[in-house]
Amino acid sequence: MSRTASLSGFPEFLPQERMVELHFLDTLRRVFELHGFASIETRAVESVEQLLQKGEIDKEVYAVSRLQAEEGAAGPSLALHFDLTVPFSRYVVENAGHLNFPFRRYQIQKAWRGERPQEGRAREFTQADIDVVGDGELSFRYDVELVLVAAKALSALPVPAFTMRVNNRKLAEGFYRGLGLGDTAGVLRSIDKLEKIGPEAVAKLLREELGASQQQAEAALKLAEIRTPDLSFVDRVRALGVQDPLLDEGLEELSQVLEAAMQQAPGKVVADLSIARGLDYYTGTVLETMIDGEESLGSICSGGRYDALARKGNRVFPGVGLSIGLSRILARLIGQESVRASRPVPSAVYIALNSDADWGRAHQLADQLRARGIAVEVAVSAEKFGKQIKYADRRGIPFVWFLGADSADQESHEVKDLRSGEQVAADPATWLPPEADLRVRIEARSAEEG
Q1: β-bridge partners, 168
Q2: Element (H, E) at 303
Q3: What are the tens digits of pLDDT across the range 85-127?
Q4: pTM of the model
Q5: How many Å separate Cα 245 from the centre of its chain?
Q6: CB 347 within 8 A of CB 397
Q7: Do residues 291 and 338 lie in contact, with contact meaning Cβ atoms separated by under 8 Å?
């Protein structure tokens, strides 16, 4: 990942790195599907009007147009989507008559955002999203379920320890309302800057921009200091002496999330009342996820509850969703060489040729091995065995297969393990490589190894 790119912000992987990415993609798909989420893919472009209706990010949107448009041609202005939530909102509205609600979807797809490239932020990146969307209403239990699914998905990946930090907007808004702060959305946007600018700067924002008193600002910051791995956050909030019905509702909902996480994802989830998620459409559960010790990377999994992200006439589609920043995770892990593929190519076997006349017979043997799930390459010419072996070794292929003298001589086939140098007889009908060599494995490396 340290290679010089010809186009900044649009990363490309070498084959061995791509195999790591594919492993991550396959793992996430498997976990999502085991929990009943169906895959969708939305188009790469949306209308500019659609993309910009959820926020002021016009400077980051890549517009799309033909280089040679027909003279006088008119049509909607198009742009590449910058996340998967806005396209999904449009997808739900347009396909509502064909979907069964609550609709459970996962979507793993590229997005584009024209921001300054830096570690963890690329202009082209892959996200993995899951959402549950209802028609008119959606049980809070889906909030709980999505937190657990995300924790299980991340736990299935070869990533270092992580912490999911969960809060509830009802809890925060009810607390601010109980303090007498009317612009609760503004307070949330200020609190969302806490890690970037620090408590003193946030307190100044609350006082100067939102009219908070010193006492109100201090109380808001005290709430944000609460972080617990268990239900003790409830007593700590109550000790602050603020009362409001919405606060009570938020405490109850966050308690349900933590209680379930303590049982099904122990050590992965904490209540962190500093998490605000400044976007206005969040209405309940909100979360961010950090790799422990790598907090500078930013959140690798974020999302929350939105009760009115999508509308169609009088119909409202509430939902809860999470987004895993797959490219952000891979950039750090591959860049640090803390995860790697066990070999640079899928091939487990390289079939050497005794003579060029053996090429057809070698392909028949290759198909016989492939039918049993063994990835095979065949030499294209009968060079000296030393050259053929050296080529296989450079490719990272662990085994070289030497054909028998003729097609009828099945007992004279031999296989050489290039790592140990051991060469043994092999029956094409039954031979298998060791389980560890059958397919490429993705291996996490410890700091000591690095």
Answers
A1: 285
A2: strand 301-312
A3: 999 999 999 999 999 999 999 999 999 998 888 877 899 999 9
A4: 0.90
A5: 36
A6: yes
A7: no
